[in-house]
Specification:
By secondary structure, the protein is an alpha/beta fold. The chain folds into two domains: 166 residues, 3-Layer(aba) Sandwich (Rossmann fold); 68 residues, no CATH class. It has nine helices and ten strands. The protein has a six-stranded mixed sheet with strand order 6-7-8-3-9-10, with helices on both faces. Strands 2-1-4-5 form a four-stranded antiparallel sheet. Helix 3 packs across helix 4. The radius of gyration is 18 Å and the shape is globular.
């Protein structure tokens, strides 16, 4: 499989605080990486550097062969990013919001229409597509934001707590979708504190603490030394928080 994302010796300071410390790892097309660590470990800073929202203090981030710092616009076109706290335009309808996203990413009109209708149906939003986003429930807003990350068919998806706010049906639908996208070659990074659910969703795991990468391996490697992802998490973070 082709390499989609590579971090080489990436560090980031905020004043005297070293938020990310010499971080290196890579993921390939079809990989789904569970990226976990305590609050303040450097996860969000790392994700913001990958998406081009922050520049690395040192090191290099390559996305599908593109240097994110040198060519952030081209790199961002290949990323779908869902932050923990979703942002929508209250007085755009669901369909208008998704059309806006497609316009930003220059998705051809026929393809955009097909993708919008497909994902609205998939997430049970078709009946609410012409309602203003301000009238959506929290779970519906999360589904609409999820759809916004998908409609331009990015090479890399980054999800920060994607299961928060979803009911059991929505969670099952999202897990099914992530499996299908992985099989089609989309790479993903998922952060979540729900470790048992995350372990069932990803094929690789990374544990970060105090800005340093403590563990990176395929999930099946966990069984050789640890009972599960939760056990590995505490083994690597209890003395690093």
């Amino acid at each position: 499989m082709s390499e989609i994302l590579k971090l080489e010796n990436v560090s980031k300071y905020f004043g005297e605080l070293k938020a990310v410390d010499n971080l290196s790892f890579s993921i390939e097309a079809g990989d789904t990486l569970g990226f976990v660590g305590p609050n303040g470990a450097g996860k969000t800073t790392t994700l913001k550097m990958i998406t081009g929202l922050l520049r690395p203090g040192s090191g290099k981030i390559m996305l599908n062969g593109i240097d994110v710092a040198s060519d952030p616009i081209t790199a961002k076109k290949q990323i779908g990013y869902l932050p923990d706290e979703v942002f929508l335009y209250d007085y755009l309808t669901g369909r208008q919001y998704l059309q806006f996203i497609c316009d930003v990413f220059a998705v051809p009109s026929k393809k955009a229409k097909d993708l919008i209708e497909h994902y609205l149906a998939f997430f049970d939003l078709s009946d609410f597509a012409d309602e203003f986003a301000i009238n959506y429930s929290f779970g519906m807003k999360k589904k609409l934001a999820l759809t916004g990350t998908l409609v331009h068919e990015p090479k890399l998806l980054i999800f920060d707590e994607p299961f928060n706010g979803l009911d059991p049906k929505g969670t099952k639908e999202l897990k099914s979708l992530l499996t299908r996208l992985s099989k089609s070659g989309t790479a993903m990074i998922i952060t979540s504190h729900v470790l048992d659910l995350l372990e069932k969703t990803v094929n690789k795991a990374a544990i970060i603490a105090k800005g340093k990468l403590q563990f990176f391996a395929p999930v099946e490697e966990l069984a050789k030394s640890y009972q599960d992802l939760e056990a590995a998490y505490f083994a690597f973070t209890e003395n690093n928080t």
